[in-house]
Structure formats: C-alpha cells, structure tokens
Amino acid sequence: MIGNGDIRTPEDACAMVTQTGCDAVMIGRTAPANPWIFRQIEQYCASISNGRLQVAASAAAAPYDHPSEADRYDMIRTYFKMLIEEELPDAVGKMKQFASWFTHGVAGGAALRKAIYEAKSGPEVLSRVEAFFEERLSSQTALILQN
C-alpha cells in the first residue's frame, strides 16, 4: 500500500508510514519545489533508531540536509540548460512553471520570478537566473571573506 497526500517534509513521510502502516509514500507537488525531498527522507529515516531520533553531535544539527543557494542555482541552471538544448517548443513555458515552484522560499525569489515571466526566450530566462544567483552568491562570498 502506498500513502499519498500532503507529504511536504521528511517528517510528513514518516508520520504517514507510522499512522497508516503503508509500505511507501508517494511524493507529488513537493518534488518540483524541493527535488532534494527524496534524499532528505532517506537521511531522516536513517537518523531514526527505535522510534527516536538519534542525538546529533550538535543540538542545532538537522537530521537531514537542506539545499544551499548554490545547490538551488545548480539545479535550476542545469534543468534550464537541458530544456534549451532539447529545443522543445514549450521550453520557455516549462522554465516559467518550474521557476514558480522552485523559487518559493528563496530570498528575493519574487523578483526572480517576475524577471523570468517577463523573459521571451529560453536563453533570456537562463541569463536572468544566472544573473540573480551569481549576484547573490558573490555577495554571500564577500560577506564570508569579511568575517
């Protein structure tokens, strides 16, 4: 039996299995917004021992990884490059749809979505994504170097 519905976090997946006794969970709308959900579920499940989370070495340590801005940038840039290379007739529409899912929760994501929606071609969308993330990542690097 496969559990389905509102699986947004690794905790949701484990709760579904615990509450229903299902053999697996189906991930739907969360996957495009957080393609790391599968790895996170695996990490979360691995951190559970006899029904309890193992005590992390640091109290602040999360039981699973969260994607960095660089991870998000790499994912969206790779996907958009693939769409452009395939020359699909609906590539720009797919890019805009994916950007809507993928940039929620990204600081400044609304401005990026607006820039993407105004773009008219795949390369223009990609250029706007690259400019957005490269500016953010270079700013973060500069802050780290200052400290």
- Class by SSE composition: mainly alpha
- How many E-type strands? 4
Distance between the terminal alpha carbons, to the nearest Å? Answer: 52 Å
Morphology = globular
Largest sheet entry: 2 strands, parallel
Relative helix content:
55-70%
**Mean pLDDT over all positions:** 85
Q: What proportion strand? A: 5-15%
Order of secondary-structure elements: EHEHHEEHHHH
Tally of contiguous helical segments: 7
Mind explaining what this structure looks like?
By secondary structure, the protein is mainly alpha-helical. It is 61% helix and 7% strand. The protein has seven helices and four strands, in the order βαβααββαααα. It has helices at residues 10-20, 30-33, 37-46, 69-86, 91-102, 109-118, 122-146, and strands at 2-4, 24-26, 48-49, 52-53. A two-stranded parallel ribbon has the order 1-2. A two-stranded antiparallel ribbon has the order 3-4. Helix 1 (10-20) crosses helix 3, helix 5 (91-102) runs antiparallel to helix 6 and helix 6 (109-118) packs antiparallel against helix 7 (122-146). The longest helix has 25 residues, at 122-146. The protein starts with a strand and ends with a helix. Mean pLDDT is 85; it is low at 54-59.
Describe this protein with a few key phrases.
147 residues; mainly alpha; two-stranded parallel ribbon; two-stranded antiparallel ribbon; 4 strands
Layout of strands and helices, then pairs:
Blueprint: E1 2-4, H1 10-20, E2 24-26, H2 30-33, H3 37-46, E3 48-49, E4 52-53, H4 69-86, H5 91-102, H6 109-118, H7 122-146
Parallel strand pairs: 1-2
Antiparallel strand pairs: 3-4
